[in-house]
Design goal:
Largest sheet: 8 strands, parallel
Mean pLDDT: 86
Distance between the termini: 74 Å
Strand content: 5-15%
Low-confidence stretches: none
CATH superfamily of the largest domain: Aldolase class I
Radius of gyration: 26 Å
Length: 504
């Protein structure tokens, strides 16, 4: 019955269109009437949508408005400061720096500086001389044979597949031109990553690009990828902020033959990264795996990335470092606010420690176990502005990464279609009709501009604080409004003295 109704409706539509074409303008109104009549009949007799059965024809307005509701809200309803996940002020900040447009703001702040939780930095009436160039941060402890000089601001982990080939190419060319690194994400290394930019090769639980037929870690395939000149560091992903304890998801509509070949999986199937690694199951095995990757990569810096859940598990890793003497060269700290192309809503909303708390905990724990001197801390999660970098370094991070900021620099408009393969700007889709809109020769410049201008803004803040070096940054320079009082981060989160947890 349903098929008969559907075919009848299609026939009526075709007939009405023919009438409009042949008899217009004399009898065009008749064709429109027939079309609407046919639509009304279909609405009345279909059984799927209650609204259409009860309100034929006009009920379609509900679905039309629902379809464009996100765009209506973003462009006509939300203010400059209340948009989610990223408000318009932050998006504008990124767009202006990427396009080298106006970087000044008129008429004062739009933020509520008396709002609970508001953060601000202390400045000096005797600013220091602004540094000409941003400093680099050396990553690599005594066990590392090939340390790497990293920029303070880099491209965070985003996989090919989650991002289009044009997006990956533009990011990598931008990284090469600007002298900063590009984290591959867990999806493996594609030809689009190899445009000359420095890479951080991320190894996730699915071991994409370095897995055997059963999906386990393959030392031979890893050695092949890690030996590439472009690969400067290797990052083991334990978890990420947007979906900690869950693993990644690549929807089937994004998993084409090319992506499947790079990852070592079947094409056109939804790919789930396992929640946990199979190469190790506890802290000691994790450290031994780090040693193994050091050997296989001929001494390149090895680190791991995680979102904090159980504090005791991270403390256990720190204790194991002191007991075994094996230490990673860096640790990347993600927060629960982190972004992803696809994640279960409950994981995005309710799992994992928020970024600020996680970073403070990791910094203090490493200091307490006398490990911070040997391990650099990289952090990512809503790092968009110079102040975000300034705050992170004051808390104790050494290096900052950004994923969504770099996506916006590419032209992302926060359409929230990352998981549908219908991204209108060609950033998070593999549909050729949409990726053609992302012109690599133009967009890589915007990635480079955004990174460069943001670091230049950071150097201005550093100067305003009176600090002559990033080594002088500390928690006393950042304030937060708590219960109506402005307290420094040093007062809110007193730093733990080095080594105080070693014997505990």
């Amino acid at each position: 019955m349903r098929e008969a109704i559907r075919f009848t409706f299609i026939a009526l539509v075709v007939l009405s269109i023919l009438i409009c074409i042949i008899l217009w303008p004399f009898y065009g109104s008749i064709g429109i009437g027939v079309l609407l009549f046919g639509l009304g009949l279909y609405d009345i007799f279909q059984t799927k949508h209650t609204v259409l059965r009860n309100f034929p024809i006009i009920g379609h307005m509900r679905y039309l408005l629902e379809l464009i509701a996100p765009e209506l809200h973003q462009y006509f309803i939300e203010s400059n400061t209340d948009g989610k996940p990223i408000d318009r002020n932050h998006r504008t900040y990124i767009y202006e720096r990427a396009k080298l447009e106006n970087e000044t703001h008129p008429f004062g702040t739009e933020l509520d500086i008396n709002e609970e939780g508001f953060k601000w930095m202390k400045h000096s009436i005797y600013p220091s001389k602004k540094l000409k160039n941003p400093p680099k941060e050396k990553v690599g402890n005594a066990s590392c044979a090939k340390p790497y000089e990293a920029s303070l601001f880099n491209i965070s982990a985003m996989s090919f597949g989650a991002l289009s080939k044009n997006a990956i190419k533009a990011l990598n060319i931008g990284a090469k031109a600007g002298g900063f690194f590009h984290d591959t994400g867990e999806g493996g290394i594609s030809e689009y990553h190899l445009q000359g930019g420095d890479l951080v090769y991320e190894i996730g639980t699915g071991y994409f690009g370095c897995r055997d037929e059963e999906g386990n870690f393959s030392a031979e395939k890893f050695r092949e990828k890690a030996s590439l000149n472009e690969v400067k560091m290797i990052e083991i992903k334990l978890s990420q902020g947007a979906k900690p304890g869950h693993g990644g998801v690549l929807p089937a509509q994004k998993n084409n033959k090319e992506i499947a070949q790079i990852r070592g999986v079947k094409p056109h199937t939804t790919i789930y990264s396992p929640p946990a690694h199979t190469a190790f199951t506890n802290s000691n095995e994790l450290l031994l795996f780090i040693n193994k990757l050091r050997e296989l990569s001929n001494g390149k810096p090895i680190g791991f990335k995680l979102a904090i859940g159980s504090k005791s598990e991270f403390i256990e890793i720190c204790k194991a470092m002191n007991e075994t003497g094996i230490k990673p060269d860096f640790i990347t700290v993600d927060g629960a606010e982190g972004g992803t192309g696809a994640a279960p809503i409950d994981f995005s909303n309710y799992v994992g420690m928020p970024w600020e708390d996680a970073l403070i905990f990791v910094v203090d724990t490493l200091n307490g176990y006398n490990l911070k001197k040997d391990i650099k801390i990289i952090t990512a999660t809503k790092i968009f502005t110079a102040f975000d970098i300034f705050k992170a370094l004051c808390i104790g991070a050494n290096i900052c990464n950004s994923a969504r900021g770099m996506m916006l620099a590419l032209g992302c408009v926060q359409a929230l279609k990352c998981n549908t393969n219908k991204c209108p700007t060609g950033v998070t889709t593999n549909d050729p009709k949409l990726t053609r809109g992302l012109v690599v020769s133009e967009k890589w410049k915007r990635v480079k501009n955004y990174q460069k201008q943001t670091l230049d803004d950071f150097l201005s803040l550093l100067s305003a604080s009176g600090c002559k070096s990033i080594k002088e940054l500390n928690r006393k320079l950042i304030y937060k409004k708590v219960n109506g009082k402005n307290l420094t981060y040093h007062e809110l989160y007193p730093s733990i003295k080095v080594g105080t947890l070693v014997k505990s």
